[in-house]
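To fix ideas, we reproduce below a protein record of this kind.
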Amino acid sequence: MTATLGRLGIWRISTALDPELAIEVEKLGFGTIWIGGSPPADLALAERLLDATDSITVATGIVNIWNSAPQAVAASYHRIAAKHPDRFVLGVGAGHREMTDTYTKPYQALVDYLDHLDAAGVPKTDRVLAALGPKVLKLAGDRAAGAHPYLTVPAHTRQAREILGDAPVLAPEQKVVVDTDRDRARATGRASVGMYLNLRNYTRNLRRFDFTDDDIAPPGSDRLIDAVALHGTAAKIAEGINAHLDAGANHVSIQALGDDPLPSYRALAEALR
């Protein structure tokens, strides 16, 4: 990979990201800002975040292949890469069957999208794939710099590393709630996780790692919520983040849940030094 991700980054939905937050997390020492959701093909937000900062990497997590034409995305990539060399990573993925009317043969559609990016000169070293299952993980190792899995556990990270091999980047997302009130923290986690428990790509993947139908049934069992939305003190959460790194992740993208993520990121930056 051309860009440097660092060990730790932040993940934030695009509508909740702005240059002021980017400046603060860069000061805290995080290596990458992941733009969550499906940012449009102009990638204007990525450019604004890069303009406002000095060295932090910005990545998309992810551009949806059904919503953003590869030619337009490639043009945006080249504009940003020329202005901010070695600081931008293009994350792409097939999104969710339930949210896309045209969701047919997603694996082949992803392969075709990568072919278009190749033809437009977007280098393999500057892109990652949203990947959960073995087939797309292998594709991420073959056709991109690596994988950016979402809503996973360290057991998935371990398996993903085995599939990818040693060289590709593995950068899972991890939700966290810095709150020692267990019931309140679980409620915060459920508010974020619940929507994903109706999406087959995520539920199928969770079943691979010993979560049952009862665990996955919305709004999610305590066992599931505790695993995918870590809660407690910053020190306790740091153990869970380090579990991904110990399992083979190069980088963990931390999604701090709640209205104001900065106090959580400040506490985690200290705990993870």
Remarks:
- The longest helix spans residues 70-83.
- The chain has a mean pLDDT of 96.
- The chain has one domain: 8-173+237-271.
- DSSP finds twelve helices and eleven strands in the chain.
